[in-house]
């Protein structure tokens, strides 16, 4: 990438992060869903080491902290999200056991077999589901758990428009049964899967974006990059409302089995 392109991309990235910093969540989900997913995990104590990968500003991390007692490290590539994350930690007086650090899911700062639980809501797609669950496996203790939410097809077939959109945005989107098979192959017992309620997308993700988009367009009036970005966000939301019976987020919970490294 030449310097000119690099600065254009840096600028895009900053804008996108600024937009998502203004929202409580950076992806579909809810505290209830986080707590439901956690209910399948039975190995946690107040000594547990937990990582929340691609934590954003930490909405789901704080929900986890409310019903676990171990140590949680949130990791995100974007320093602005981690700054907000750590502000939230202090507001909730959780600094003794929750911290946010800047880092990449491609190069996690953990020792082998250090973690009791790996968590990642709506973020593993950045590395790809199959690569993520395979590469992160070594960081879990035997008997440790992984919980990730991931875009998934609900049906074997779907209309061309939505099929093409997702195959361009994230070609690894797949059916629930194929994702479960990938987990099993990566050395996890599939413990549970469940589909996130539509309200995680509508009430908790797309609706709050309506006013965020207005403010953002006002601030960046005439900025083509900002306008195109918001157009894409609106298009993505419209597609969701049109085709939500065919896809959504699914939580996948797995347990690391013995003798599989
Ligand atoms: N988990 C949060 C939630 O559910 O609100 C955020 C989900 S957001 C869709 C995806 C997150 O992944 C963003 O916060 C983004 O900065 C982060 N991310 C993207 N690439 C990453 C990487 N290579 N390593 C760590 N985090 C990354």
Distance between the termini: 37 Å
The secondary structure category is alpha/beta
The CATH homology group name of the largest domain? Vaccinia Virus protein VP39
Largest sheet: 8 strands, mixed
Name the CATH architecture of the largest domain: 3-Layer(aba) Sandwich
Secondary-structure element series: HHEHEHEEHEHEHEHHE
Q: Portion of residues in helices? A: 40-55%
The fold-level CATH name of the largest domain is Rossmann fold
Please compute the radius of gyration using only Cα atoms.
18 Å
What is the number of E strands? 8
List the uncertain runs: 1-6
Categorize the overall geometry. Answer: globular
Bound molecules: S-adenosylmethionine
What do you see in this structure?
The protein is an alpha/beta fold. The protein folds into 2 domains: 187 residues, Rossmann fold, CATH 3.40.50; 42 residues. The protein is built from 9 helices and 8 strands. Strands 1, 2, 3, 4, 5, 6, 7 and 8 form an 8-stranded mixed beta sheet that branches. Helix 2 packs across helix 3 and helix 8 runs antiparallel to helix 9. The longest helix has 20 residues. The radius of gyration is 18 Å and the shape is globular. S-adenosylmethionine binds next to helix 3 and strand 2.
Structure, briefly:
With 261 residues, this protein is α/β, with parallel strands linked by helices. It contains nine helices and eight strands. GO terms for molecular function: methyltransferase activity.
């Amino acid at each position: 990438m030449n310097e000119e392109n690099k600065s254009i991309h840096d600028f895009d990235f900053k804008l996108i992060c600024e937009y998502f910093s203004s929202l409580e969540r950076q992806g579909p989900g809810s505290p209830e869903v986080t707590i439901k997913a956690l209910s399948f995990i039975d190995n946690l104590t107040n000594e547990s080491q937990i990582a929340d990968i691609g934590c954003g500003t930490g909405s789901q991390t704080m929900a986890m902290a409310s019903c676990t007692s171990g140590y949680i490290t949130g990791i995100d590539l974007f320093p602005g999200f981690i700054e907000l994350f750590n502000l939230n930690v202090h507001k909730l007086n959780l600094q003794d056991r929750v911290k946010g650090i800047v880092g990449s899911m491609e190069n996690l700062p953990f020792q082998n077999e250090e973690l009791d639980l790996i968590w990642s809501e709506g973020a593993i797609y950045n590395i790809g589901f199959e690569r993520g669950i395979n590469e992160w496996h070594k960081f879990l203790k035997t008997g440790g758990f992984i919980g990730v939410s991931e875009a998934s097809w609900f049906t074997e077939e779907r209309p061309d428009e939505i099929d093409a959109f997702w195959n361009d945005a994230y070609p690894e989107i797949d059916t629930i049964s194929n994702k479960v098979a990938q987990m099993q192959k990566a050395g996890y017992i599939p413990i549970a899967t469940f589909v996130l309620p539509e309200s995680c997308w509508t009430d908790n993700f797309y609706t709050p974006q309506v006013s965020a988009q207005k403010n953002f367009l006002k601030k960046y009036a005439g900025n083509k990059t900002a306008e195109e970005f918001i157009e894409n966000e609106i298009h993505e939301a419209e597609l969701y409302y049109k085709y939500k019976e065919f896809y959504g987020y699914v939580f996948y919970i797995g347990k690391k089995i013995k003798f599989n490294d």
